[in-house]
TrEMBL record:
Residues 13-229 form the Cytidylate kinase domain. One of its GO terms (molecular function) is dCMP kinase activity. InterPro entries: Cytidylate_kin, Cytidylate_kinase_dom, P-loop_NTPase. It comes from Wenjunlia vitaminophila. Belongs to the cytidylate kinase family. Type 1 subfamily. Pfam families: Cytidylate_kin. This is Cytidylate kinase. One of its GO terms (cellular component) is cytosol. GO terms for biological process: nucleobase-containing small molecule interconversion; pyrimidine nucleotide metabolic process. Transmembrane segments: none annotated.
Amino acid sequence: MDTAGRPRDAVVVAIDGPSGTGKSSTSRAVATELGLRYLDTGAMYRAMTWWMLANQIDPGDPVAVATASGKPVLLSGTDPLAPTISVDGADVSGPIRSEEVTAAVSAVSAVPEVRSRLVELQRAAVAAAASAGGIVVEGRDIGTTVVPDATVKIYLNASPEARAARRNGELTGARAVGVEATREALVRRDAADSGRKVSPLAKAEDAVEIDTTDLTLDQVIEAVVGLVERRRRERNLG
Ligand SMILES: Nc1ncnc2c1ncn2[C@@H]1O[C@H](COP(=O)(O)OP(=O)(O)OP(=O)(O)O)[C@@H](O)[C@H]1O
Ligand SMILES: Nc1ccn([C@H]2C[C@H](O)[C@@H](COP(=O)(O)O)O2)c(=O)n1
């Protein structure tokens, strides 16, 4: 066992950063390549937000959100090839990506009771994955709060313009609002996520920052896999 009580060969990779920097794409690919589990904590905050909206709870009312936050039963599947998220037994992987949820998620995720409940579930997933080799966990506060003793911490960043262009490329039909509107929405959400009182979006002091603006996704994956492998070698020598 290591000092965190995990099997000595278990690896926990924490990947944080603003929206659209490539956290999900990178995390899934790294977990697949290294045979690790994968947890998308943003999907958990989205699922909580989806439940609040579905139950007519105003996301702008922190007291109502806090009071209800213990009710939904959230379950995250951690297979990087087929991650799942359900609420009260129903698959919500599609609905949590709606514009309505995206617009409300920063307010819901700023409520301390929501965070303490989800951080507890996230730590349980990390503990469960430790006996299966480890896990890649992505979010906003993984390196600072959820797993401060992670084996490797990465902070992905990219210019708002590059992130907006990437996100806009994914949107079709009525959702294709244009790069400028996408950029404004990203910057607004980053400001709310960085400005909240409890575990805001932040780079851990010991995280390695990777600016992905001019890198391909493959280059980012290669850089992260390289950092994990180097840490593993150092640990085996130490
Ligand atoms: N280095 C890269 N170069 C070009 N496109 C990229 C790169 N990394 C990710 N992408 C693309 O950018 C989009 C956003 O990536 P992804 O969903 O992984 O970001 P994210 O940080 O998880 O975002 P969010 O926090 O909003 O969930 C996707 O379409 C993805 O394919
Ligand atoms: N660890 C986390 C992960 C996510 N959030 C909040 C803030 C984000 O705007 C929102 C959605 O995340 P995304 O799907 O864009 O990765 O969830 C958080 O507060 N802490």
